[in-house]
Specification:
Blueprint: H1 2-5, H2 10-29, H3 32-113
């Protein structure tokens, strides 16, 4: 018997046992109208919790849609940046080729003039 009192969970068992008994005594002292009011209040609380959870689910769905849109815009931006880099590269190559061609023509013209 003494070993049961030294068990580490004894304190929690007694707390649960006596708290439950105290709760039952409180309910026994309530009138029928008070019990009905308590049930209605609890039902309203459950209903408001359900609606709060539904609103949270809707907000999460909305945030998921926004995240998908942002990711899509990010990918499009990356593709545009790559296209811009490619266009700049091609334009630079064209300008360099045009300068080289002009220099070659000037050299050829100078040789022909001599």
């Amino acid at each position: 018997m003494l070993n049961c009192l030294n068990h580490p969970l004894t304190l929690y068992f007694k707390k649960w046992k006596y708290d439950r008994a105290d709760s039952e005594k409180v309910l026994d002292r309530l009138s029928k109208k008070q019990l009905i009011d308590k049930i209605v209040a609890d039902e309203n609380l459950i209903g408001s919790s359900k609606s709060r959870i539904q609103r949270m689910d809707q907000a999460i769905d909305h945030l998921n849609i926004q995240r998908d849109n942002l990711l899509e815009h990010f990918i499009k931006g990356q593709k545009l940046a790559l296209a811009k880099i490619n266009n700049n590269y091609l334009a630079s190559m064209f300008r360099a080729f045009a300068r080289w061609k002009k220099a070659c023509q000037a050299g050829e013209q100078a040789e022909l003039n001599d």
